[in-house]
Amino acid sequence: MWKVEESFRTLKNYLETRPIFHWTQKRIKGHIVMSFVSYIMQRTLELELERNNIEYSHEKIREAIKNMEYIDIKTNEQHFAIRTNMNLLAQKILKILNIPIPKVVTPHEEFVEKLKLQNENKEIKGLEKSKVKA
User: How far apart are CA 124 and CA 88, in angstroms?
Assistant: First the structure.
């Protein structure tokens, strides 16, 4: 039991959580589940970084992920998604997760198509896993 309590203390510090006031049982459960899922994702990434001998801190991970952004640029005739610069840790995180580093400038149609393909692949993988369990 103490490990669970320690994990939640770590989780609260890592996610910089503050008191959240929910009034329904459904929202309370949802908040707890999302917090736990966030913790599992964070811990899994930490273990992968350790396994690959990559130095990290909670703050550096948070900053690297937070800065992975795209900017939507439209002109009269063109529409692009432009990736912001990624630091070295962000690039290493993507590599560890087997995610190719995206191009800096991507035509909007290509960007949207890649998002659709990624979502379809996730749905297919989810279906395959559910078939295996059945």
Answer: 31
Instruction: Give the Cα separation of 47 and 53 in Å (integer).
Output: 10
Structure token digits, residue 42: 């964070």
Domain spans of the chain, in order of start:
1-51, 67-134
What's the CA gap between 117 and 110, in Å, rounded? 10
Alpha carbon distances (Å) from 63 to 20, 96, 116: 23, 17, 27
CA dihedral 46, 85, 70, 120 (to 10 degrees): -50
Mean pLDDT by runs of 10 across the 134 residues of the chain is 58 59 80 82 90 90 88 91 92 91 90 77 58 50
Helix (H) or strand (E) holding 20: none
Does this model's pTM top 0.85?
no
Amino acid at 124: I
